[in-house]
Amino acid sequence: MSLGCAKNLVDSEIILGRLLENGYALCPDYEASDVIVVNTCGFIDDAKNESVSEIESMLDLKKRDSGKRLVVAGCLSQRYSEDLKIRYPEIDAFIGVNQREELPEILASLDNSASAESHAVVKVNRILDRYDVDTGRFRLTPEHYAYVKISEGCDRTCSFCSIPGIRGKMRSKPVDAIVSEARELADSGARELILISQDTSDYGFDLGRKRLLPELLRALETIGGVDWIRILYLHPSTLSDEVLSIVSNSDKVLRYVDIPLQHATDNMLRSMKRGIGASKQSDLMHRIRAEIPGVVIRTSMIVGYPGETDADFDALCDFVREHRFDRVGVFRYSHEEGTSAFGLPEQVPADVIALRQERLLDVITEASDSRAMERVGSSVTVIVDQQVDPGSFLARSYGEAPEADPVIILRGDGLREGEFVSARIDSLAEESFDLIASPV
Predict the structure, then answer these.
(1) Are residue 371 and residue 404 in the same domain, yes or no?
(2) CA pair distance 222, 240, nearest whole angstrom
(3) How confident is the chain (440 residues) per 10-residue block, as mean pLDDT?
(4) What is the three-class DSSP state of 325?
(5) Is residue 196 in a domain?
(6) Same domain for 367 and 386?
(7) What pLDDT was estimated at residue 126?
(8) What's the confidence (pLDDT) of residue 282?
(9) Which of 9, 122, 133, 264 could be 319's S-S partner, Cβ–Cβ 3.0 to 4.6 Å?
(10) Residues 317 and 404 in one domain
(11) In this structure, is residue 130 part of a structural domain?
(12) Are residues 149 and 285 in the same domain?
């Protein structure tokens, strides 16, 4: 069971790959299996609650089959393994975010243990100095797209974020290693590569004090069989003109800018330790629109951060209206121990946070509806993701990332998953941001 973000999904694919290499086989369902691995997320409260809920569901299965092994992996395990061990003594093993390669050995040690009541194996503390290549994956995505994790960890000190404490300092893969991995993915059918990390803009800076994202993009453009390259998680303070130029002019790098901004006033951005001021951030958004024709911008915002005033929130709403983002995720501030924001005064009451989230979502809906309506009647190339009904398929254009964004419902016959199709946007779906389209 893989929970959380796409970065966690890559870890899950590596875990499965190593298990299959060591003689394990996949089961069609959890009840039939000897081993269940829950790869958790522990980033914010909602993710932690989901992870705990799924762990408890799997423990219910284990209670009915005492021979079943349950392994908890990922961020929640890395962050709270000792607490979880006390709360759920039935769990057999905990592995952290850097111990995914060790799971076959851990399972072997469990199988060889003298008693089923042995103490749980806990391996969560080791932080690696380098990041290994993610080859030999058992892919959980459809064949035609794959995530490429270009670095692990983060060097930033954003006040609300627990990731550096969980995953450690930034460790980038060398460019040639990523290219080798990408070729393997292309050979397995991936026509779209989606670059991910904690901070994609800073990729390579730890290798030699130089940001290497432009060099990486140019190298990936040369790989045969890859048609689309999508970049996620760019940071506004270090997004370079060179990267924007590549996005604007490349035949393969998509005009899709995923850039979490988090807020829009100087005092909020300063307290959040974002490394950029409100004016420069706004100028950057205008420049992206001006320099990249047809660009789709996705961002995320936090409401209810400590000290956020009514004026701060009103300015955030005005900022969203001004820039008419194509996609915006709105997160309630999550009070995370181990972060510098944890001890800040002026905590915003929960009911105020909920109201602000609702109000901002209303602003976003208005802007998103407007931008979606502008697309009706236009022609676009889409990739077919999945057939859902006879004559009905889920598809995406360059403006939709998998899982995160609305989809295009493509109505036609004789289409294949992974196929690129020229389509016309016919209408906006009712009660959603999805679009209805037909093949041209």
Answers:
(1) no
(2) 22
(3) 92 92 91 93 89 95 90 92 91 88 88 59 65 79 96 94 89 94 95 97 93 97 97 96 97 98 98 97 97 96 97 98 94 92 93 97 88 91 95 96 94 94 93 90
(4) coil
(5) yes
(6) no
(7) 57
(8) 98
(9) 264
(10) no
(11) no
(12) yes
**Is the same domain home to 286 and 356?**
yes
Strands (E) across 261-370 are located at 296-303, 327-332
Nearest alpha-carbon partner for 361 in 409, 313, 428, 296: 313
User: Which residues, including other chains, have CB under 8 Å from residue 48's CB and lie 6 or more apart?
Assistant: 41, 42, 76
Q: Tell me which residue range forms the domain holding 432.
A: 379-439
Predicted local confidence at residue 116, as pLDDT: 46
- Single-letter amino acid, residue 302: I
pTM score of the predicted model: 0.93
According to the model, what pLDDT value does residue 373 have? Answer: 87
293 CB contacts (<8 Å, ≥6 apart)? 248, 255
Residue 115: predicted pLDDT: 47
**Based on the structure, what is the number of domains in the chain?**
3
Name the region of 180 (left: φ>0; alpha: ψ -120 to 50; beta: rest).
alpha
**132 located within any domain:** no
In terms of domains, do 357 and 434 share one? no
The domain spanning residue 159 has which CATH number? 3.80.30.20
Number of residues that make up the chain: 440
- What is residue 285's predicted lDDT score, i.e. its pLDDT? 97
Q: Which amino acid is at 48?
A: K
Alpha carbon distance 211, 235 (integer Å):
12
Among all chains, which residue has been given the structure tokens 């003298």?
114
Distance CA 161, CA 166 (A): 10
